[in-house]
Write a structure and sequence with these properties.
The complex is a heterodimer. By secondary structure, chain A is mainly α. Chain A has 13 helices and two strands, in the order H-H-H-H-H-H-H-H-H-H-H-H-H-E-E. The chains are: A mainly alpha, B mainly alpha.
Chain lengths: ~300, ~260
C-alpha cells in the first residue's frame, strides 16, 4: 500500500471517529447544561436596545431569530405542561425592541402571556404591557386595540379598560364596525357568556395561525357547551316544577314538549342527563375550559 | 484615459471572478432555499418576513465581506506579485490605477448583487406564491445596500493604499461597525456640551453613515421609501466615497513603491 493511501485511510478514519466522539461529548455537555441553557445565553444581554446596537443594522433578522426563540420556548414549556414561563416576556420584549413593527410578536405573544398555566404564562398584566408597547409603535393597526380589549375582558376581567381599548380601536381608520359593538357591550357592563363567545369567534375568524385557531375553537366549544348546559338545566327545573318529578332521561323531556330532541353538544355527541337534573358533557376532555364560568358566576369567563 | 480605466476595471473584475468570489452565490441560494420553509415550521407568521430579512441581510453582509476581503488585496497583491511596476511602467497614472480598481470591485459587487437579487425574488415568488406591489420597495432597499458597497469599497481602498492587508481589513471593518452607530454619535453630540459636543459632532460627520442606508426592516414591513430619501442617500454616498477615493489617490500618489 502506498504511503499516501495509508495516510488517507488513517486520516479519514480518525476524522470520522473523532467527529463521532465530539457528538457524544457535546450531548454530555447539553445534558449537564439542561434544556434552557441556550436560552439563558440568549438572555445574556437582557436589553433589547443593547442587542439592537450590536446587530450592526441587521436588527430585523435578529428580531426574527428572537421571535422564533420565543415561539420555541413557549412550545417546549407548553408541551411539558409547565407552570413557569419566566423567560417568555423578556424574549418578547427584546424581539419587539429589535423590530417594533413585528405585529405577530404582539398578537401571539400576548396570547401566550395571558392564558392561564399550563396553556400560557398566566401573566395578563405583562400581556397588556406588550400590547400597549405595540400600539405605541403601530398606532394605525387597529387589531392591536382588539387584542388589548380582549386581554382586559377575558383575562383581566377589567370591563372599563376593555371598553376604552375597543372604543379607541374603533376610531382608527379601517377598523371593522364590530369594534364599536364590542365597546358598547363593555359600556353596558354585560358580563354575559355571549360576549365571550363573540370575542373568541372574532379571534377564530381573524387568525391565520392554525394553533391559535384550534385554541379559539376549544374555548368556543366550551363556552357553547356552558351556555347549552345552563339552558338545559333551566328547562329540567321547569319540567320538575310542572310535573313534580325529575326527568330520568331526555325522552321524558321530549315527551313533555320541553325540548324538541336529544340535545347535542358542540362536538356532536349527546349531552348527559344526570340524576338530580344536572346536565354534563359525555367526554369532558373535549371541553377543557368547561366549568370555568360556573366557578365564577359573577364574571362569566 | 477612459480606455485605461476601462482596462483596469475589467481586469479587476476578471481577477475577482477568477478568485471564485461569486461562489458565495451558491451559499446564498442554499441559505435562502433552506431557511424559508425551515423557519415556516418552527416559527409563527414569519415566512415572508424571514425570507426578506435573511435575503437582504445576506446580500448586504456577503457584499461587505467581499468588499473588505477583496478590497484589501487590490493594491497589496499587485505590489507582492510586482505586477504593479509593470502596470505603472506603462502610460497608466497612479490615480487611474486606484480609480480603475475601485470601479472593478464595484462592478464585481454589483454583478454579485444583481444575481443575488434575481435568486431572492425567485425565492420570494415561490414562498409567497406571487409578488405584491410593495415588493418593489425591496428594490430600493437593495439599491441602498449597493450604496453601502460604494462607501465601504472606497474606505477599503483608502486603507489598502498605505497599510498592510490585515490592518486594512481591521480598519475597514471597524469603520463599518462605527458607521452603523453614526446616528447614535449625533444623538450623543446633541446631549453633550462644549468640546465633547463638537468632537462627537465632528466624528459623527467624518465616519460613514451606514445607519441611514439600512432600510431592510422598513422594506420588510412594506414601508414606503421616499424618492427624497433615495436622492439624498445617493448624493451622500457618492460624495463621501468620491472624497475617500480622492484621499486614497492622494496617499497612493505620494507612496514610495521602491
Amino acid at each position: 500500500m502506498k504511503s499516501r493511501t495509508k495516510v488517507t485511510i488513517v486520516a479519514g478514519g480518525l476524522a470520522i471517529a473523532l467527529f463521532a466522539g465530539s457528538i457524544i461529548s457535546r450531548r454530555q455537555v447539553e445534558r449537564q447544561r439542561g434544556n434552557e441553557a441556550t436560552l439563558e445565553d440568549v438572555l445574556f444581554l437582557p436589553s433589547g436596545k443593547t442587542v439592537k446596537r450590536l446587530s450592526l443594522g441587521y436588527s430585523g433578522l435578529l428580531a426574527d431569530i428572537y421571535w422564533t426563540r420565543a415561539v420555541q420556548y413557549f412550545g417546549s414549556k407548553h408541551l411539558n405542561h409547565s407552570q413557569q414561563y419566566s423567560l417568555l416576556y423578556p424574549l418578547l420584549d427584546i424581539t419587539t425592541d429589535l423590530d417594533p413593527k413585528l405585529i405577530v410578536a404582539y398578537e401571539y405573544g400576548s396570547v401566550f402571556l395571558s392564558q392561564k398555566p399550563p396553556d400560557g404564562a398566566g401573566q395578563p398584566d405583562k400581556a397588556v404591557a406588550l400590547v400597549e408597547k405595540g400600539i405605541r409603535a403601530n398606532p394605525e393597526y387597529w387589531r392591536l386595540y382588539f387584542t388589548l380589549g380582549f386581554v382586559h375582558y377575558i383575562d383581566r376581567h377589567d370591563l372599563e379598560k376593555a371598553q376604552a381599548a375597543f372604543e379607541k380601536g374603533s376610531r382608527v381608520p379601517g377598523a371593522l364596525p364590530w369594534m364599536k359593538v364590542m365597546a358598547a357591550r363593555m359600556a353596558e357592563h354585560r358580563k354575559d357568556i355571549n360576549t365571550s363567545i363573540m370575542l373568541w369567534q372574532a379571534v377564530y375568524e381573524t387568525t391565520p395561525d392554525k394553533d391559535v385557531k384550534a385554541t379559539a375553537q376549544l374555548h368556543l366549544d366550551s363556552l357553547q357547551a356552558e351556555r347549552d348546559i345552563s339552558e338545559l338545566e333551566r328547562r329540567v327545573e321547569s319540567y320538575r316544577q310542572r310535573t313534580g318529578n325529575s326527568p330520568s332521561s331526555w325522552g321524558d323531556l321530549i315527551r313533555g314538549g320541553v325540548i324538541p330532541g336529544v340535545p347535542l353538544a358542540p362536538k356532536g355527541e349527546p349531552y348527559v342527563l344526570k340524576p338530580g337534573g344536572k346536565v354534563d358533557v359525555a367526554d369532558s376532555s373535549k371541553y377543557r375550559y368547561l366549568g370555568e364560568w360556573r366557578g365564577n358566576q359573577e364574571l362569566p369567563f | 484615459m477612459t480606455s485605461r480605466l476601462y482596462a483596469i476595471t475589467l481586469n479587476t473584475f476578471r481577477e475577482a471572478v477568477r478568485d471564485r468570489v461569486l461562489y458565495n452565490l451558491i451559499l446564498f441560494v442554499l441559505v435562502l432555499v433552506g431557511c424559508a420553509p425551515l423557519f415556516g415550521q418552527i416559527s409563527i407568521g414569519l415566512e415572508r418576513l424571514i425570507l426578506i430579512n435573511v435575503g437582504l441581510s445576506s446580500i448586504s453582509f456577503f457584499g461587505v465581506i467581499i468588499a473588505i476581503f477583496v478590497g484589501i488585496g487590490l493594491v497589496a497583491k499587485e505590489i507582492d506579485k510586482k505586477t504593479l511596476y509593470t502596470i505603472l511602467s506603462r502610460p497608466v497614472r497612479r490615480w487611474e490605477f486606484i480609480v480603475g480598481k475601485y470601479f472593478g470591485l464595484m462592478m464585481t459587487l454589483v454583478v454579485n448583487t444583481i444575481l443575488m437579487t434575481v435568486g431572492f425574488y425567485i425565492a420570494l415568488l415561490v414562498t409567497a406564491h406571487g409578488l405584491k406591489r410593495t415588493d418593489a420597495n425591496l428594490l430600493a432597499a437593495i439599491y441602498f445596500i449597493i450604496l453601502q458597497f460604494v462607501m465601504i469599497v472606497a474606505l477599503t481602498l483608502l486603507f489598502s493604499s498605505f497599510s498592510t492587508p490585515i490592518f486594512s481589513a481591521i480598519f475597514a471593518f471597524a469603520l463599518f461597525v462605527i458607521g452603523t452607530f453614526a446616528e447614535d454619535l449625533k444623538n450623543f453630540a446633541a446631549i453633550s456640551e462644549g468640546m465633547v459636543k463638537w468632537l462627537a459632532m465632528g466624528t459623527a460627520y467624518i465616519v460613514p453613515n451606514f445607519a441611514s442606508l439600512n432600510v431592510i426592516s422598513m422594506a420588510a414591513h412594506d414601508g414606503a421609501i421616499t424618492t427624497g430619501l433615495i436622492f439624498s442617500n445617493t448624493l451622500y454616498a457618492l460624495l463621501y466615497s468620491a472624497a475617500v477615493t480622492a484621499g486614497a489617490v492622494l496617499i497612493f500618489e505620494r507612496r514610495n513603491l521602491k
